[in-house]
Write a structure and sequence with these properties.
Alpha-D-Glucose-1,6-Bisphosphate, Chain A, domain 4, START-like_dom_sf, SRPBCC domain-containing protein, ASHA1/2-like_C, 267 residues
C-alpha cells in the first residue's frame, strides 16, 4: 500500500482544529507541538525548521476552510526533494469533529512494510497530540529549550522567574504549601503534588485568589525530558472550571514558556 490513513475524535469546534491544521509542518515534532521557525517562500511554500528534526519544505496544495487541508511534505529543503502528500479532513460530529489524515506517495520514499508501520504509529501519536493541543477545556503547551534537563529543571523549578512574576514561595517537597503572586491577578495559594527532579513538578492551584486549594483544585503538571540537543518542557493544566478560564490560562502559559526559553537562551 502506498498510503497511511488514521483518524481521531476531538471534542473541539472545527475552527479551533483548523487553526492548528493550517500551521505549516505542525506534525513534525518530538511528541509535543512546538513553535517552528517558518520562512514564507511565496506561492504557498514554506521552509520549516524543527529544533530536533531540522529543516524541510512544505507546500500548500489545497485549503478548504474547516473541512480539508492538503500539503506536500518534502523530506528536504528543495522542491525536487522526495515528497509525500498529507491530507487532513475534518467532519463534524456531536460534541466536536473527527480528524482524519491520509499520507500518500510513500513508495516514492522507498518505504517498506516495517517503515510503513512506523509511519502508521507516528500518525496515531500525532493525532493524539493534536487532540490534546486543541482540547478547549484544558491547557497543553510545550517549548523546546537549548539546555539539558538538569539546567532546564533549575529554571522550571523557579516559578517566579518565568511564571509567577510577582513572586513565589514554596519548597520542592510533596504536600508543601505554595504562594504564587501576580500584580494584576493577586495572590493564589497552592499545594505541591509531586516532585521528581529533573523531570516533573506537579501542583494544585486554587482558582480564586486568597483561597486554599481543595482536593479537586486544578492540577498543573510541568515535565522536562531530553529532546535533540536540548530539552522539551511541557505544561498540562487540567480541572479548569470553564473553557473561558482555560483560554486565559493558555495565554498565560504560552507567555511563560516563551520567557522560560528566553532565559535558557541567555536573553
Amino acid at each position: 500500500m502506498d498510503n497511511v490513513e488514521r483518524h481521531v475524535d476531538i471534542d473541539a469546534p472545527p475552527e479551533r482544529v483548523w487553526e492548528l491544521l493550517t500551521r505549516p509542518g505542525w506534525f513534525v515534532n518530538d511528541g509535543e507541538i512546538v513553535a517552528h521557525e517558518v520562512e514564507d517562500l511565496g506561492e504557498g511554500a514554506y521552509l520549516v525548521t524543527d529544533p530536533v528534526h531540522g529543516s524541510f519544505r512544505i507546500e500548500e496544495v489545497r485549503l478548504e476552510p474547516h473541512t480539508r487541508a492538503v500539503f506536500r511534505w518534502h523530506r528536504g529543503t528543495g522542491p525536487d526533494d522526495p515528497a509525500t502528500q498529507v491530507e487532513f479532513r475534518l467532519a463534524e460530529r456531536p460534541g466536536g469533529v473527527r480528524l482524519t489524515v491520509v499520507e500518500s506517495g510513500l513508495e516514492a520514499l522507498g518505504v517498506d512494510r516495517r517503515l510503513r508501520q512506523g509511519q502508521e504509529q507516528g500518525w496515531t501519536e500525532e493525532l493524539e497530540v493534536a487532540r490534546a493541543h486543541t482540547d478547549p477545556a484544558r491547557v497543553r503547551r510545550a517549548v523546546h529549550v537549548p539546555a539539558g534537563p538538569d539546567r532546564a529543571w533549575d529554571v522550571v523549578a523557579d516559578l517566579a522567574s518565568w511564571y509567577a512574576f510577582g513572586g513565589a514561595a514554596y519548597t520542592l517537597i510533596e504536600d508543601a504549601p505554595m504562594r504564587l503572586e501576580w500584580a494584576e491577578h493577586g495572590i493564589f495559594l497552592g499545594r505541591v503534588e509531586r516532585v521528581a527532579a529533573p523531570s516533573e513538578l506537579a501542583f494544585r492551584l486554587a482558582q480564586e485568589p486568597d483561597t486554599e486549594p481543595g482536593a479537586d483544585a486544578p492540577l498543573v503538571r510541568v515535565t522536562v525530558r531530553a529532546s535533540g540537543t536540548g530539552s522539551l518542557v511541557t505544561v498540562e493544566h487540567t480541572g479548569l472550571a470553564s473553557e473561558d478560564e482555560a483560554a486565559m490560562e493558555r495565554l498565560g502559559w504560552e507567555g511563560g514558556l516563551t520567557t522560560l526559553a528566553e532565559r535558557l537562551r541567555g536573553q
